[in-house]
């Protein structure tokens, strides 16, 4: 009998493809209505955008009836949890089918978790997600209520935006995203985005330092420091470049949301061109590994910066927080970044060729899709069939690409590598 | 007595700065005339562009009288020879002042040449330069003569363009560069650009395989293969993207010239936006180390690609042409590339902020300046004072940056590194 063998890393690819296909058909169900109607390509685009927590839209989310919006919320949740628990579920999935030596390799799949921890992570991540979203739901509902919505509507919008913000999805039931919202809504959203974007390695690590006496890992330090530094630098730069026409709160909001969430409290198209370029850079850097966010990731960015600095100072070893980082680990970070830039260039060339948009609009759109950010200068809805397919592919690759690559790399590692003494940094 | 100590790598910086300052004052001499007059900032810009063999112009080169054009030609020649013989001259300069251990370190300055070879290289490079330029001068003069110029004019234009092409400078005495030239001019120019862009390591190595029995180095193979591959790929892509509106010869020409020379045989502004983006990518990659060209260099690009591919295949060692490449050598390549991208981003942000140009025009201009290419979508002449200073800084940094960095890195290497068994690749 023919036996089809699934590589562990294909598991992720297939799972997400199935999620998207299922989502596409759900959106085409007869009881799902959209004011403008919904073609198959638009349903595919919307499902991909939701499952890959991107937030780019070709049709207004507000145009969907309850069921359409509900399915979008469901897809965001499933997509986000799916990535966050990838390691755990992958391990659980494989457990029964592997011989010991292979299991030993797979146990290393996350570079920092072992097979016994896998189930624990799964549980903690799910609990963490729902606790955060519940708190966010309460705060956002209150915020929307203050904005004059009826209690029932405020609760509904609160739930939708809590899920969307924590999952860093960026979908909004409002046509103009969060422009004009009050400070409670903005600040709650910012918190949800940041806590959703830390990644489950960090969440698990921090959780374990509280319950047992586990130490704070280097990975956690890198993520927290880099996230903090990027948010502050982004806020100040955006505020400065916009020369005071944007409030410091909105600059703060935009700095946080640009790296992967995709909400906006100001009109992106109206920003200064230099601010747009800065946002492209922030979108490329992105969020942290094992999170709902995309981009080249904070850890890879941090490693690239530190390694550049060390090399230029003539150092032979790369030391991060008093730990030697294996050179091969650094090369992996660069390989991931190179791969990302390669896809960015190819996708930009394709969209420039098939689309009819300016260079800024095109690069912004591709970066946003590949980084699963969801911000747009307004060309998403104007995309032709090729353009929609290119952006759909970008969202999919941007979402599962890095995790797949890293999983693939770990499975290919020779067992001899297991004795490496240096501390490893998680990249994808 | 106060003794000012010059680091070897500062030598390069200061030498070029002095060349530029001298050039600026030469262009302001009373017997140098320009039809439009010439301000100090424009003289500085022109001198920087000539010494750094970039070719960007704020005033028409045709507007200069003989002396102006002569000084430009002189500056291109001095700037090009200056970089090409950097290693040699640096070694000669330092020889008398160093104790033995330091001399031993400096002897490694080029990663592949020793101190005994330094003088030999200097001689060979100078002879090579003048032989190539003389042959080019004859062929180009013949070409211009066929185009209907009087013999004396044809010879003058032949000389100017031979120097400009071999030095990859891109200056032309014609306002529309080489648009409308005949095939002899185009093909000769292409040959001069390619042979000028190989870099003196390659020239010296190939020369030595003929006179003695020296082997072809890995560095030489990488440069030749990568140069060849990039030219072919660029030609086909440009031809394809322009959908047959550009001849295959012009596509070939543009593919060669874009990576660093900066001549054009077609109107760059009239190209498809996707072709412009492709040209930005080619300009970023650039020419080869130790050559008159700029960019991140063919070797760094090759190493990045091969290392990405190896890492993604799960390899622990990076093998190039059956040689192990030290991981630290690869990290140096990435450090150089990161540095380049860092400057590219900063300069683009600055020019977007101070200029009032589109994103494409701005990025194209900055890439062209930093890669010392000299192509422009037409904004160079419209730059304000800040814009001119930014682009001047880009040309200077793009020209001396990589070589300076690599020199600095080599001087900082600990002697223990001298025992490394792997073959090294020259980067900057
Ligand atoms: K998003
Ligand atoms: K040039």
Automatic annotation (TrEMBL), chains A, B:
It is an enzyme of class 3 (hydrolase). It comes from the Bacteria. The chain crosses the membrane at residues 6-27, 39-58, 70-94, 121-142, 154-171, 183-207, 222-241, 262-288, 294-312, 333-354, 385-411. GO terms for biological process: metal ion transport. Keywords: Cell membrane, Hydrolase, Ion transport, Membrane, Transmembrane, Transmembrane helix, Transport. GO terms for cellular component: plasma membrane. GO terms for molecular function: hydrolase activity; monoatomic cation transmembrane transporter activity. This is H(+)-transporting two-sector ATPase. It comes from Flexistipes sinusarabici (strain ATCC 49648 / DSM 4947 / MAS 10).
